[in-house]
Design the sequence.
């Protein structure tokens, strides 16, 4: 709410109109209320004037970020729940309906595209996984801005329904991180410059790999696996340094050799957790059918 009365007589009319118009424009921002009880734009007080100018500049930046369509920076969206923040998204689309642009990729894949600060990122493999690519497109036009390829000489096992590069990248508006399985974790800036890479070892499983990294408080969190080597790891987002690593029970790298359920269906799941009995939780693990998730 803007106080309509400005009692300072030394406020020039032209400055007053400018202030009213700008503040009125930003007061209409969604989920935001602007409350200004007292303003002094007198040029005889330069410090106050500069402070107000900085306030308006900050509001202008916020306005530019608000009007831009919401980003989708990771697997299943900004909150990880698959719910879009856009309230004007189309409800129906097809090959020629509600499609702004298209881009051709060299092969199929299970990873999802992500959107961050005007960029669209997607992974795709070539040559039976010997080339693992990260593509970057302009969000508005669909123009391919760059592609970064990691070459890997070994043809690894995977299921025909799960091509290589099944992991979805994650971005924070300045960096994009992608896990290419056995070749490692790679981080690029938005111009495609490689910032760091981290080799976490081989992923070997008949179903391939598909977990996607997430970002949390300056860390890259990755569920590495499935297979004999299965663990949860945290990397420093700025440097790629391994901060900590927790081996899942049952893997060859774990002290606990209990099988956690990589059965013929390969997908581990916690079936029962007795965590309310004030004793170490007991878990029963089993593999879910392909349609069980």
Sequence:
């Amino acid at each position: 709410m803007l106080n309509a009365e400005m009692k300072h007589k030394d406020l020039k009319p032209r400055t007053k109109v400018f202030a009213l118009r700008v503040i009125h424009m930003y007061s209409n921002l969604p989920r935001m209320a602007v409350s200004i009880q007292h303003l002094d734009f007198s040029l005889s007080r330069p410090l106050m004037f500069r402070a107000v100018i900085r306030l308006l500049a900050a509001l202008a930046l916020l306005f530019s970020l608000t009007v831009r369509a919401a980003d989708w920076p990771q697997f299943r969206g900004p909150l990880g729940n698959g719910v879009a923040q856009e309230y004007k998204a189309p409800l129906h689309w097809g090959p020629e309906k509600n499609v702004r642009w298209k881009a051709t990729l060299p092969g199929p894949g299970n990873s999802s595209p992500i959107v961050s600060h005007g960029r669209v990122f997607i992974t795709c493999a070539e040559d039976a996984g010997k080339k693992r690519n990260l593509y970057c497109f302009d969000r508005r036009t669909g123009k391919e801005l760059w592609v970064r390829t990691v070459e890997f000489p070994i043809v690894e096992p995977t299921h025909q329904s799960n091509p290589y590069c099944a992991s979805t990248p994650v971005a924070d508006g300045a960096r994009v991180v992608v896990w290419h399985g056995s070749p490692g974790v790679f981080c690029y800036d938005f111009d495609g410059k490689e910032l760091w890479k981290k080799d976490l070892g081989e992923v070997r499983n008949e179903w391939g790999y598909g977990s996607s990294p997430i970002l949390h408080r300056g860390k890259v969190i990755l569920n590495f696996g499935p297979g004999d080597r299965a663990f949860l790891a945290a990397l420093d987002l700025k440097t790629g340094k391994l901060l900590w690593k927790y081996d899942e029970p049952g893997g060859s790298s774990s002290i606990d050799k209990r099988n956690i359920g990589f059965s013929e269906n390969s997908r581990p799941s916690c079936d029962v957790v007795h965590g309310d009995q004030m004793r170490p939780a007991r878990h029963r693990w089993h593999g879910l059918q392909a349609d069980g998730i």
Observations:
- Confidence is low (pLDDT under 50) at residues 1-43, 63-67, 252-293.
- The domain at 114-256 is CATH 2.40.128.630 (Lipocalin).
- The helical segments are 13-26, 46-67.
